Amino acid sequence: MKIILASNSPRRKELLLRENIDFIVIPSKFEEPKNFGLSPSAYVEYLAYNKAKAVFDIEGGVVLGADTVVVLGSEILGKPKNESDAVCMLQKLSGKTHEVITGYSVVSMDKTITSHEVTKVTFNKLSNSVILDYVKTGSPLDKAGAYGIQDGDFLVKEIVGDKENVVGLPVKAVKKVLSEFI
Question: N or C: which terminal CB in the chain sees fewer CB atoms within 10 Å?
Answer without folding.
Answer: N
